């Protein structure tokens, strides 16, 4: 059997699934195709030509390397293929986006044949994905007197690769499709339980929304030729929860335009919209594809005669429709006047925010990457030629307000800014290129990140990045065939690229499934760091972190940079005293509830939450920053006291050392470099040279929220409110209820303590509750299953050393065994304690799930429909979120507890305590560390 016949067999299998041939990334298979093409009598020649031309992936894949070399042979006359003329070979090279294709074009352009060189140069002038080695060849040739090199550089200096592109069409006609009412999570567009297929774009596209929706979209396209389908979140925000590049890819696959006729299933330019706009991190992903994101504002608050909002019984504003966007409505988007109009031209909404100069550039270039690389290429060419680069791209927006201080995020952005005039201070709203210190890639988006790196022809991590980590946590629950196929391949690619990887491709250290956010929280060793991660919960307790799509992660890894506006901040402070029976998780929930009460609207959405939490160490403070993703915030910053920050950095150092001891450091000694950086930062704080980051007293905030701890007297539960008559109010994080609301009567089918929201102290709370209940009752019986998944192996090792693991083992009916990991997801649960492998487990929902229709009480962050638990035929699945003690007690009781039961159960237990930083917090740090 040859690779080609294997490929044919795979094609037949895919046909039965309604799929086309899978795009080719294997150079050995392409070599077989070429051999069959050269053999004019070969029975497979015609198909081989089609596969080579239309189905071979570009960039730095091994397939692209073999294809580029063959096209070079054709251009030089060393191979003769009637169907691929030299001119067609040049065209194919122009669509291969860097890597081997650039190397071939440079060989031709800098060669001895003048006619060939001139043609290759014209193609090179259209390319932007050049890296240091490519630029060095051009510079060297120019300095050696090459007229062709000078000509190419002159074109780059003028940015002709951008200026000669067609302008964005003035009027975009769309036909609407309402994907759902209320907030639309990216899980609807790219379900977590289908994460294994994300790198197979056509296959993954079949999971968007549902088959009926896909069919309806296709019908709309047939009914409205020439118009683009606009996907809408009616009465909600589009793309909440995560950036998820696969979500935008799916939307583009069904509604967008093909990026290149020679690259299958890569579409660009989708149009998405929401009554309340697009989630910030998802909007970044839309920009990656050159798409359009619209804030419809088609439902507005109904006002009384005094101009005040009329409220419902639940104190939420009554909304009234300003204009209809029901499915099948034809609308027009004018990109010049920046107005949304009806088909007849009636103005419906101002959409200026969708068409800033920068966003229009992304649309013109077919995506943000081309602009990022284009700017870099223009700067290089101008500097090499010794000329001034003309202002081709929209100037960065710079806002500097004299006399106004800086918020914490403004300080971090100013400190890390690239290309800003020395001494210039920028405030919120300014567009800034910043250096990125830490990058995280997670395993269900990592394969897409590796594809993006190949597509942009990157081969090694940028030296600007201090540390980067590839996790294995999202696929930790079940080591099934899909994981076995995908994860080792991903780990090898990322390890070779320069990341610290959870799994050693050589098998020399034990495979780690630690939750990525916890690892990133440890390897972030400065409060001045900028972190980019391929997950919406990339929220650190040190520095400022942004969840991003797989492509932005790839860009950060390849260039060490990110570009974004400096966000506005909302200041959160605390007053009062935390009651002994409350856990800090209740403070987190109460922050959301009190914010909504104080402001009416979610002032956190799209902004940075600057939380003055100061006295909590990194692990516990992370509980707050992690939750901010569900508050729809863009990011969060912890303002920490000097002593607390030093404690957090010492803890981070010890955990990084554990990683080193396990053999996880690389040849570049990345992990040791992070310890050295932490030592330097600790010395700066202790000496007073550079204290812990704080905002200026005269900083300006979008809003301020004061959380009154005195008002928090009961455990709080975030409820998806699945039966709310108003569909738009289901599955949001705005419904926060005290435990007494349920009267001790709400049935709980399963409890889950795990995900990135828990720290070591949470697992200790589980152990202590079991000890207390055993002492009081002689034994502990569970009336509902309790799943416990520690976030990291370090935590389990420490629990074993401190004696807490024994009681957990005593009551467990299942304990993970890394020597024999589960090969199949659990579908039914007994009323026992399950000790699961470190990782995301139920929170991710891509492998392990609760039984359909269950009511789950969890410490996790996600209450999206179908994420943790799917609906059954008779009952909607519910994922309610609460603190660890509430979850444990509910699993034991089989229902939510009343206050008397709860207080008795937590008596004497060291819950995570918190005192506002301005108070003298004797013992305010949790005793768990």
Concise synopsis of the structure shown:
The chain is of the alpha/beta class. Helix 5 (86-94) packs parallel to helix 7 (114-124) and helix 6 (100-109) runs antiparallel to helix 7 (114-124).
Task: Provide the fold topology.
Blueprint (H helix, E strand, L loop, with lengths): L2 H14 L10 H12 L6 H10 L7 H14 L10 H9 L5 H10 L4 H11 L7 H12 L3 H11 L2 H4 L7 E11 L2 E2 H4 L11 H5 L5 H13 L4 E7 L3 E3 L4 H11 L1 E4 L2 E6 L2 E4 L5 H9 L3 E4 L3 E3 L17 E3 L8 E5 L4 E4 L4 E4 L6 H9 L2 H18 L22 H9 E2 L12 E5 L2 E4 L1 H13 L11 E4 L10 H17 L2 E2 L14 H8 L6 E4 L10 E4 L2 H10 L1 E5 L3 E7 L8 H16 L8 E7 L3 H10 L7 E6 L1 H20 L8 H18 L15 E6 L7 E3 L17 E3 L11 E4 L6 H18 L8 E4 L3 H10 L2 H7 E4 L17 E4 L18 E4 L19 E4 L2 H10 L5 H8 L23
Parallel strand pairs: 1-3, 2-4, 3-7, 7-8, 16-17, 16-19, 17-18, 19-20, 22-23, 22-25, 23-24, 28-29, 28-32, 29-31, 30-31, 32-33
Antiparallel strand pairs: 1-11, 5-6, 9-10, 11-12, 12-13, 14-15, 15-21, 26-27
Helix pairs in contact: 2-3, 2-4, 4-5, 4-6, 5-7, 6-7, 7-9, 8-9, 9-17, 16-17, 19-20, 19-22, 25-26, 27-29, 27-30
